[in-house]
Every structure is written in C-alpha cells, then in structure tokens.
Amino acid sequence: MSIFSKIAAGEIPSYKCAENEKFYAFLDINPVGKAHTLVIPREEIDYIFDMDDALLAEFSVFAKKVARAIKAEFPCKKVAQIVLGLEVPHAHIHLIPMNNEGDVDFKKHIEIAPEEQAEIAQRIFTAFQKLG
Asked: With 0-12 CB in 10 A as exposed, 13-18 as middle and 19+ as buried, what is 68?
C-alpha cells in the first residue's frame, strides 16, 4: 500500500482539502507555494495514464473542482496542474496557485506552520463544498 493510499484511508494524517468516494485531495507537506494541493485517486494506480478513460475523466473533473476552490480562496491568475514525480507509485496531480511560472519551481520549497496548513486546508474544503 502506497503512502498516498494510507493517507486517503486515514491511516496517515493529512490536511484534507476535498474528497469523494473515488478521489482525495490534501495539502502537500513539502509545498512549493501556499495551498499546494495533491489530488489522488483512492484506487492505487501507479501512473495517471494507466487509469481507464472513464476514471481519468472523472479524476480531471474532480481536480478541476478542487482547482476552482483553491482559486476562490487564494486569488491567482491560474492554478497550475502538474503531473510529475516518480517517488510515490500512486497517480497524482499537483495543483498550485500561480501568478507567474516562477511560482511553480519544484527546486524551491516553503515552510508553512501546521496551524496555517490546517487553516488553508479548511478554507479549500469549505470552498469545495460550496461548489456543489
């Protein structure tokens, strides 16, 4: 079981931003920016393009709703959607608020206090729920 599967199952604590029966979104613990969120399928699938077409389409729609919630709470020009990472064998999308491309530099990480991470996650979660 991957670390992301354990997070989605509640076995490892996370800053939950959104969820439904198929997908889970939570704040990255090593963010490149404020509100840097990971979106994963609950089903353990190693590579995003290994998902069948129907699941991939649902995954994209779920991520879009999470991105809208992020943008509502953390105004920015766009929310970047990035698929990368070989370190966790579980499909995931990074969603990062950005005003310029420099905001999405994976060589630079920021530290955010746990209390602030909890507040950020709650804001995204509440905005996600309002989107219906």
From this structure: middle
Q: Which of 36, 90, 92, 94 is catalytic?
A: 92
H-state helical runs in the chain:
3-8, 53-73, 114-130
Q: Which helix (H) or strand (E) holds 24?
A: strand 23-27
Q: Is 94 designated active site? A: no
Buried b (16+ CB within 10 A) or exposed e, 93-122: bbbbbbeeeebbeeeeeeebeeeebeebbe
Cα separation, 37 vs 121, in Å, equals 9
User: Is the pLDDT assigned to residue 85 strictly greater than 80?
Assistant: no
Name which of 107, 33, 120, 112 is nearest 76 in CA terms.
Answer: 33
Q: With 80 as the cut, is the pLDDT of residue 33 above it?
A: yes
